[in-house]
Specification:
The chain has four helices and no strands. The protein is mainly α and 133 residues long. The protein has one domain. Helix 1 runs parallel beside helix 4, helix 2 packs antiparallel against helix 3 and helix 3 packs antiparallel against helix 4. It starts with a helix and ends with a helix.
Length: 133
């Protein structure tokens, strides 16, 4: 039971989070994408994933900004970049033994906030696409 609580449940949740990142990358119009949606799954590689997460945050932010600058969206859409940065910093800090328990709670909060912003950004794109069609 403890193994399920400490390993399996967080892993399943993380997989859904990665899926959300991948779907958000997929909503960016292809000419404005800097990362393909499949690249989000590289987050499953231990240690590397902490660094890769920051590259994905930048790719999502830049993709949405490029769409806005080129007139594909009527307003600049908030992708939760700052929440993601907070989550990534807490994630990196959790590798330090002295900070692991201090960093986990804010990391959990930032990840929920970031996940919510990603979903909101995708919904905004879908709304705008349906509005124009």
């Amino acid at each position: 039971m403890l193994i399920a609580f400490l390993i399996i449940i967080p892993l399943i949740t993380f997989i859904f989070y990665i899926r959300s990142i991948s779907k958000t990358l997929a909503t960016i119009a292809e000419p404005y994408r800097t990362q393909s949606p499949g690249m989000a799954w590289l987050l499953l590689i231990p240690i590397f994933n902490v660094i890769w997460f920051f590259f994905l945050l930048k790719a999502i932010r830049d993709g949405f900004a490029n769409m806005y600058q080129n007139g594909l969206t009527q307003k600049d859409i908030d992708t939760g970049y700052h929440y993601g940065i907070g989550m990534g910093c807490c994630w990196a800090a959790s590798f330090l033994p002295q900070l692991v328990f201090i960093a986990l709670i804010p990391m959990f909060v930032f990840s929920i906030l970031h996940w919510n912003k990603l979903n909101s950004a995708r919904r905004a794109i879908y709304k705008e696409q349906n509005h124009y069609n």
